[in-house]
C-alpha cells in the first residue's frame, strides 16, 4: 500500500479505545513526541502501550500516562528517576505493568513482524519471569517459550524518510523503531525531513517502505 | 578500596580486543580506565558498538546516549543497530564480557540484581537478564557487604534471580573472587585477610 504523507492528528485518527500501541524510543531518544501529543488530542484511551520505558519527564509517553489513557504498560524498565507519572499511576493502582526483559521485548516484536509463531529463548530461565511458563531443553540448555507481541499501531521516530516511506535513523535513536515498524498493523513514522524518491541511498535504508503506512514531518 | 580503584582493576583485567558491555551505575566508571591501545570495544544495549565517553549536558546529542540514558560520544569505527540486533549479539554469544552491579551473587554463580522483592517496589529489569543469559563472561562489581554488614556473596540468593549460574567473577571493594566448578577462589584481598573472609562469608572459599 502507498505510504500516506500527512499531519500528526490525521495520522493517528483511527487509533481506538483498547488498542495496543507500540511506542518507539529508549528514554527520549527516538520518542515520537508529536505523534503522542496528537494521540492525546485525539482522545483514545484504555490503551496497552509497549515501549522500553514507562515515560520520562512530562512529555511524550509520560504525558499520555499523565492523561490517564494507558491501562497497561508492557516494558522492560519502568522505574527511573524521572518516571513520576508512571510511578503515581502504578501506586494508585490505575495502571497495570507487564515487565519483559529488554531483549525479549525486542525479539517478541521481531517475531510478530517476521511471522514467527513463538520461539525458545534462554533469557530469564530460573527467574520469576519464567515461572509457570513452558520450557524446553535443547542441546543441554534450557529455554523459555516466548510469544510474539503485535501492535494495532506503531508510533516511531526516524530521521529522514523519502516519500515512499523508506526510513533512515540517527544514532542510538534508532533503537526499537525498525522492529516496531514491522510488528504493527498500522505503522506511523515521525521524521525530521521528507525527501524525494531517489534521494536516499538504497544501501543506507534501515526500514524499507513496505513497513511504513503513514509519514509525518516534524522539524527537529 | 573505592569505586575508582576497583574500576581500574577491572579495566586492567578485560582482555585486549574484547567486546564489552558495562552495566549502568558503578560499572560505567570502568570505561574511564580502559587504555586506548587495548582495542576494547564497548557495546551499549540501546544499539551501538564503539561507544565513547559520557559527556556533559551542554555537549549532549540526545540521539546518542548510553544504556543509562546519559549523553555519550561515538568513536571512530562505531556502528549502530536496532534493539533486536543488539540483543541477538548478546544472546548469540558474541559479547565477550559484561560487568554488572548486584544485590547478591550465589557461590554457584546465580545473580540477583533487578528486584529486592519488596512488595512496594516497582520492578525494572532492563537488559540485565539478557546479559546474564548471553554474555560469555558475566562479571559483577559490587561492595562485598551491605550497609548493615550483611554479605552479598551468599550460599544462595534470597532476592529474585536475574540469571542462574552465570557469574564467573566478583570484584568487590575488599576482595576479588573467581567462581567456577571447583568453587569460589579468592584471588585478591584489600584490607581484609583470607581468614577474616572465611569468618564473615557463609560460603566455602579456596585460597588462590
Question: Can you tell me about this structure?
Answer:
The complex is a heterodimer of chains A (220) and B (208). Chain A has a single domain (8-118, 147-206), classed as Glutaconate Coenzyme A-transferase (3-Layer(aba) Sandwich). Chain A is of the alpha/beta class and 220 residues long. Helix content of chain A is 22%, strand content 28%. In chain A, the strands form 3 sheets. An 8-stranded parallel β-sheet of chain A has the order 1-14-12-9-2-3-4-5, with helices on both faces. Chain A has a 3-stranded antiparallel β-sheet with strand order 6-8-7. The model of chain A has no long low-confidence stretch (mean pLDDT 97). By secondary structure, chain B is an alpha/beta fold. Chain B has helices at residues 3-13, 83-91, 128-134, 194-200, and strands at residues 19-22, 41-44, 48-54, 72-80, 97-100, 104-106, 111-112, 137-142, 153-154, 167-172, 175-180, 183-189, 205-207. In chain B, strands 4-3-2-1-5-8-10-11-12-13 form a 10-stranded mixed β-sheet, sandwiched between helices. In chain B, strands 7-6-9 form a 3-stranded mixed β-sheet, with no helix packed on it. The chains are: A alpha/beta (220), B alpha/beta (208). Chain A binds chain B through residues 26-30, 52, 56, 76-80, 87, 90-91, 97, 99-107, 109-110, 121-129, 169-179, 206, and chain B through 44-48, 61-65, 69, 74, 80-84, 86-88, 90-91, 110, 115, 120, 122-130, 132-134, 160-164. Chain B: Belongs to the 3-oxoacid CoA-transferase subunit B family.
